[in-house]
Amino acid sequence: MSQNTLNNPTEQKTSKSHPIKISWIIPPDIQLYLSNNDLPKNHDLYDCMEPSIREQLLSMSNRHPPSLLKGNLCLSSCPGKKVRLSGPVRGRASINRDLDADLSRMKSFGITLIVCCLDDYEMELLGAPWPKYREIAAKNDIKVLRLPMIEGSCPETIEEAQHAIHIVNNEMNKGNNVLVHCRGGVGRAGLFACCWLLENSLCDTAERAIAIVRTQRSPKAIETLRQADYIIQYAKSLKQRSKLTEQHQTLTNTTPTMDVIRPFPKTKSQPANSEVAS
């Protein structure tokens, strides 16, 4: 960043003067630990960010380095974004980013998949039209998963986010990083990050997930009540799924199999062909 930019915060921001900010959801030192281990018992990711616990995890991961470092999730604003090009508006500088430079920077961080939360109209409006975006992403060997949401809103169903998270997790299991962006990388992208934290059992509650994203990305993350409610509903759906899984496992474990079914001795009051578990 140039000295002129520091002295004049309303000076135009470019990919050169302000390289696109990439915010990691899991701190890299904790990610090192999680590549080999589950979270400590009775702790979630928010607990592990507390300095004393974090130091313990770092010490353990240094003693037993992982054979494969799992991928991480990160957030950013829209690459190639161009807004307020005619000049500052209410003290906010114009932004004139370069799509090629931004995507190349993302590639340098080991990002191989982008979750784009914008529709074609908004991408065009921001100066990053989808055909050009797709072409430059492919040139950088970056795959793009589209999960469009209206500004301030959320996916139409829980299953939409769940399906996208499944794709993201598959990519991360290969050791690759995944980036999520919307317009500013705060509202819609933040919502996805919260659901990802919940789905991967890194947080138990919506409130804890939101707290982590606000700590790692921006205090403004999760911009509307509708987005907050979606995250709460996502957490509830996870608990329902978990309960159904437990019930299924219990049923499976208690249902007698053919090798434990024995014929009951024949009596006058018992039909000859009846069978019950012994």
From TrEMBL:
Classification via Gene3D superfamilies: Protein tyrosine phosphatase superfamily
SMART domains noted in UniProt: PTPc_motif
Keyword Hydrolase in record: yes
Presence of keyword Signal: no
Pfam families with a match to the protein in the record: PTP-SAK (PF22784)
Residues in Tyrosine specific protein phosphatases domain copies: 159-217
Start and end residues of each stretch annotated as Disordered: 245-278
GO MF term set: phosphatase activity
Top-level taxon: Eukaryota
UniProt keyword list: Hydrolase
InterPro entries: Prot-tyrosine_phosphatase-like, PTP, PTP-SAK, Tyr_Pase_cat, Tyr_Pase_dom
Composition bias, Polar residues: 247-257, 267-278
UniProt protein name: Tyrosine specific protein phosphatases domain-containing protein
Record organism: Rhizopus azygosporus (Rhizopus microsporus var. azygosporus)
Organism classification: Eukaryota, Fungi, Fungi incertae sedis, Mucoromycota, Mucoromycotina
